[in-house]
Amino acid sequence: MKKLAVVAFGGNALLKSGQKGTIDEQETNVYETCTHLLNLIKNDIDIVIGHGNGPQVGNVMLQHEAGEKTYGIPKQPVDVCVAETQGSIGYMIEQQLRNVLEKENLERDILTLVTQVVVDKEDPAFQNPTKPVGPFYTKEEADKMADGKNVVFHEDPRGRGWRRVVPSPKPERINNRKSIERLSRDGNIVVTVGGGGIPAFYVEPNKLQGIDAVIDKDLASSKLASEISADEFYILTDVPKVALNFNTPEEVQLDEITVADAKKYLEKGHFSEGSMAPKIRAAIQFVENGGEKCIITHSADLGKNNAGTHIVKNK
Ligand code: ADP
Ligand code: MG
After folding, report:
1. C-alpha closest to that of 11 among 294, 216, 301, 192
2. Which of 85, 146, 215, 312 is the most exposed place for a label (fewest CB within 10 A)?
3. Pairing state of beta strands 162-166 and 152-155?
4. 78 and 214 in contact (C-beta within 8 Å)?
5. What is the best residue among 216, 272, 298, 301 to mutate for testing ligand 1's pocket, by most ligand atoms within 8 Å of CB?
6. Catalytic site includes residue 11
7. CA 296, CA 221: separation in Å to the nearest integer?
8. How far apart are CA 93 and CA 51, in angstroms?
9. Does CATH number 3.40.1160.10 belong to domain 4-312?
10. Nearest to residue 46, comparing CAs of 203, 231, 187, 247?
11. Is the CB of 262 under 6 A from ligand 1?
């Protein structure tokens, strides 16, 4: 049977640090990342693509904010902003990947799905919002908007002002997972769980509703990979390998680690929260749920011999 892989695009695949986010910049970046996917596609591996949306959803929220101030157009909640970015980023990936494939005379349908990810309303993350989103405000503005319950602001550690923080709950279930699996096993390339998915929860049985939260894109892609029984899970980022003692003279780059190693290094604090730690947790989760291996790599190395760090089952 053909192999199925989930590939999660990191922020860099869409926007590089220092760039403003023009459409030209984004299309160039996406095109380049898509050329690296050829290594998998030419090996006859079926793929599903997940992606981040940090800068993009931040910009959408700013646009809503400005639209409300200037024109009185009501701003929309976080879940709707995430949905917007799934559409716009999915469109960019779909178009650029098609350009890459057509140049190689390869034919695939590429389908973008606007995807809800169900979270548990009892998730402890709702008691402790941590994920900064949207514009920066002055303390006075933030105080006016805060309601002491659902709308919470934290001061930016780099002194840029006050920013809304939202919960980052665990992804419990990917909606439409059976269709995602079927479409991808049929040879179509599916773009889904963008930005970690649109967070939704059951307010009561049979009543699904969006919620102001942001799901980690690596954990959501991992959940998806398990739910569609993918063989491999690739996390594309901007470093060639995962390292111990990262960014110190003692740095050691890792080629292959077992889940037990990964847990040990995680506990020892080798991986930063908010960047590498969630990727490692996503990798562990995938392999523990039956996946063959997770590969964390720079996108440009995809398909090269010895690319990235492989997280594998315990031996
Ligand atoms: P992405 O947009 O791909 O999710 P992140 O910035 O969230 O990117 O995560 C990748 C970053 O993780 C790297 O650029 C690197 O600075 C950081 N990082 C933290 N700890 C490590 C580690 N132990 N090994 C490698 N990279 C690490
Ligand atoms: Mg990240």
Report:
1. 216
2. 146
3. antiparallel
4. yes
5. 272
6. yes
7. 13
8. 10
9. yes
10. 187
11. no
Tell the burial category of 234 from Cβ atoms under 10 Å away from its Cβ (0-12, 13-18, 19+): buried
Residue with tokens 């009185």: 72
**Ligand 1 close to Cβ of residue 141 (< 6 A):** no
Distance in Å, CA 102 to ligand 1 centroid: 33
**H or E segment and range at residue 33:** helix 23-41
What residues does each domain of the chain span? 4-312
pLDDT tens-place values along the chain, 315 residues long? 899 999 999 988 898 888 888 999 999 999 999 999 999 999 999 999 999 998 899 899 999 999 999 999 999 999 999 999 999 999 999 999 999 999 999 999 999 999 999 999 999 999 999 888 877 899 999 999 998 788 899 998 888 899 989 999 999 999 999 999 999 999 999 999 999 999 999 999 999 999 999 999 999 999 999 999 999 999 999 999 999 999 999 999 999 999 999 999 999 999 998 889 999 999 999 999 999 999 999 999 997 888 999 999 999
Q: What is the largest CA-CA distance in the chain?
A: 61
279 CB burial (10 A radius; 0-12, 13-18, 19+):
buried
Length of the chain: 315
Catalytic residue, from 12, 39, 176, 188: name it: 12
8-state DSSP, 11: G
Q: Torsion angle of alpha carbons 75, 202, 191, 274, nearest 10°?
A: 80
- Counting runs of H as helices and runs of E as strands, what totals does the chain give? 8, 17
Residue 61 in tokens? 């929220």
